[in-house]
Amino acid sequence: MTTHTLPIAAPVLPCCEPVVHGEIDAASATVLAQVFRALGDPTRLRLLSLIATQPDAQACVCDLTAAVGLKQPTVSHHMKQLVGAGLVVREQRGKWAYYRVREETLEVLRDALRPSAGEADISALHEGKSMR
Amino acid sequence: MTTHTLPIAAPVLPCCEPVVHGEIDAASATVLAQVFRALGDPTRLRLLSLIATQPDAQACVCDLTAAVGLKQPTVSHHMKQLVGAGLVVREQRGKWAYYRVREETLEVLRDALRPSAGEADISALHEGKSMR
DNA sequence: TCAATGTATCGACGTTTGTCAATATGTATG
DNA sequence: CATACATATTGACAAACGTCGATACATTGA
Fold this sequence. Notes:
alpha+beta; DNA-binding; three-stranded antiparallel β-sheet; 43% helix; homodimer; 5 strands
């Protein structure tokens, strides 16, 4: 919703403040954690990689199912989580559901992991549908 | 162990290959996923942020416990996971255990999320003690 | 409208996770 | 050695997760 500073690896302010200063507020931490958790599964990492490495940078469930060797409902389940985390976008074309990687989200994550603690615009993550 | 290419968001090779080409091998995906999963909890994100934002970029458990409002065993548990993921390093000084952020690991993650799909040196992640 | 096909949802299952109280380990200090 | 204090480990519990078979929904084409 709002823009937050997320200093993961270096302080924004000079020094001398107590531990609590510069702390990520719990709300932002929750949102960011959801995205990282979506990446925290080998299958989902592979799915994301598969989509990204496609010639046209997109893939449908049938392709992915074959590639990761899991059943179709399982792949759909994982894709839903990736969409919910805003890491991927779904588009229905004919009978097929095509997925593309959302670069903006990857950028937010890279920013969050930056040593120089830039501005992490958490609001860019909210485009994924809220899950469960 | 070895150095792997991890093309999350863009293909390394020109095009025209089937879905399986450029796929992250399962082993690398597992290692990377462990690190992302460590970031996939709001409390651990806050802990990491707290450590990083300390004036001397380090913190002991007692400080962290007070800051996140959880019990000491819980914080120790989370710190163990962060160490296991290689996101943090533990150093015993006197009675206290001090934790510092491992910048190398953050860099590996940023690389993994890079659109231009650089070299993600997975081996840098193996310094964390294997857990469980 | 019916059949075929791609995808999503549901219900179930074993496993993993986050949290805590209780207890053990380790480190200084009297 | 004994005591105090900081941290780690253990065991327990509820909640969340990954996976699947069965089934429902949606889109296309005959």
